[in-house]
C-alpha cells in the first residue's frame, strides 16, 4: 500500500515537473527573448528588477535569483517553512531558465517592435503561469509579498487588492523611469497575461466558475473566501448517502484566478476536502465582475 502511494506521488510529481519545465522555459523566453530586448517592463518582480537594472549593470537572471531567494527567506521567517516549501521549487528553477536564455541570446522578433513584443510577452508569460498554476505551484513573487503584508500589516484587506496595489505601484514607478508609453504597454501586457492564464486553465469563454467545497475546516475556508478573496459564500446542508453524515457545503462564485487561490488554500488547510469546479457561462447580480441583472 505504501509503495503504491509512493508511486502515485512520484507519478504526480513527474507530471508536475514536466509542466513546470515547459512553463519556466516559456516564461523565461518571454522575459529574456521578448520583453528586455524591446525595452519593455511589467508588473511584479519582473518590473521591480527592471527598475533596479536602471541603476546597476547586473544581468537580469542574477538580480532575479537574489530577489527570489530574499523572498523565500522572508517568507520562511514571516509565514513559516510550510509556506516557503510551496515556492521553493520555482525559486530555484525559474531563475535557472532565465540564466540559460541569457546565454542563448535568442530573440523572437527580427527587429524592435514594442506593440508585438507587448502582445507576445503577455501570451508567453500567461501560458507559463497557466501551466504552473494548474499544477498548484506558485512563483513566490509579489503574491508572496502580498501575503506577508496582509498577515503582518493589513489582515482585514483582501489579498487580491494588496496584490493589485503592488503591481500598480511597480508599473507607475516604471512610467517615471522609462516613460508613460512603456508603462501603458506594460498594462497591455498584464491584461493579455491575465486573459491567457484564464484561457489555459479554464478555456476561452470562462468568465466565472462556481466552487462547491465540502471540508472539515469549514469556518477557515469560508473566512478566507470572504475576507481574503472578497467573495460571498453560501452554505448548503448536504448528507452523504453512504455515511449518513451531514455537513455544510460551501458554494461560491469567483473568477478563474481567484478559484486557484481558493484551491491552494483548501489544499494546505484540509487535504481531504472535496472540491467541485463548475463552469459558469453568465452571472447576473451584485459582485465584482458580474453582470447587472437590470441591464443584461
TrEMBL record:
Primary location group: membrane
Residue intervals passing through the bilayer: 12-36, 62-81, 88-108, 114-137, 158-178
CDD domains: YitT_C
Record keywords, A-Z: Cell membrane, Membrane, Transmembrane, Transmembrane helix
InterPro entries cross-referenced by the UniProt entry: DUF2179, N-reg_PII/ATP_PRibTrfase_C, UPF0750_membrane, YitT
Cellular component GO terms, alphabetical: plasma membrane
Pfam families registered for this protein in UniProt: DUF2179 (PF10035), YitT_membrane (PF02588)
Cell compartments where the protein resides: Cell membrane
Membrane topology: Multi-pass membrane protein
DUF2179 domain: residues covered: 231-285
PANTHER family attached to this UniProt entry: UPF0750 MEMBRANE PROTEIN YITT, UPF0750 MEMBRANE PROTEIN YITT-RELATED
Name this polypeptide is given: YitT family protein
Amino acid at each position: 500500500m505504501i509503495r503504491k502511494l509512493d508511486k502515485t506521488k512520484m507519478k504526480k510529481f513527474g507530471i508536475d515537473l514536466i509542466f513546470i519545465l515547459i512553463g519556466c522555459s516559456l516564461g523565461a523566453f518571454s522575459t529574456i527573448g521578448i520583453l528586455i530586448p524591446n525595452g519593455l517592463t511589467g508588473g511584479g518582480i519582473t518590473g521591480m528588477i527592471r527598475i533596479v537594472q536602471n541603476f546597476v549593470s547586473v544581468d537580469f537572471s542574477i538580480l532575479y535569483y537574489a530577489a527570489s531567494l530574499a523572498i523565500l527567506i522572508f517568507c520562511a521567517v514571516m509565514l513559516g517553512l510550510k509556506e516557503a516549501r510551496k515556492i521553493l521549487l520555482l525559486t530555484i528553477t525559474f531563475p535557472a531558465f532565465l540564466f540559460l536564455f541569457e546565454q542563448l541570446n535568442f530573440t523572437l522578433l527580427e527587429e524592435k517592435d514594442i506593440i508585438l513584443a507587448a502582445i507576445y510577452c503577455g501570451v508567453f508569460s500567461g501560458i507559463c503561469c497557466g501551466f504552473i498554476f494548474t499544477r498548484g505551484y506558485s512563483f513566490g513573487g509579489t503574491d508572496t509579498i502580498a501575503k506577508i503584508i496582509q498577515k503582518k500589516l493589513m489582515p482585514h484587506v483582501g489579498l487580491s487588492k494588496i496584490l493589485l496595489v503592488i503591481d500598480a505601484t511597480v508599473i507607475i514607478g516604471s512610467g517615471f523611469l522609462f516613460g508613460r508609453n512603456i508603462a501603458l504597454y506594460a498594462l497591455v501586457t498584464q491584461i493579455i497575461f491575465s486573459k491567457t492564464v484564464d484561457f489555459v486553465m479554464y478555456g476561452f469563454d470562462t468568465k466565472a466558475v462556481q466552487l462547491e467545497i465540502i471540508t472539515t475546516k469549514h469556518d477557515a475556508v469560508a473566512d478566507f473566501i470572504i475576507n481574503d478573496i472578497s467573495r460571498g459564500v453560501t452554505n448548503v446542508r448536504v448528507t452523504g448517502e453512504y455515511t449518513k453524515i451531514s455537513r455544510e457545503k460551501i458554494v461560491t462564485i469567483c473568477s478563474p484566478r481567484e478559484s486557484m487561490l481558493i484551491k491552494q488554500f483548501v489544499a494546505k488547510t484540509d487535504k481531504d476536502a472535496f472540491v467541485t469546479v463548475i463552469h459558469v457561462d453568465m452571472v447576473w447580480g451584485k459582485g465584482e465582475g458580474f453582470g447587472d441583472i437590470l441591464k443584461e
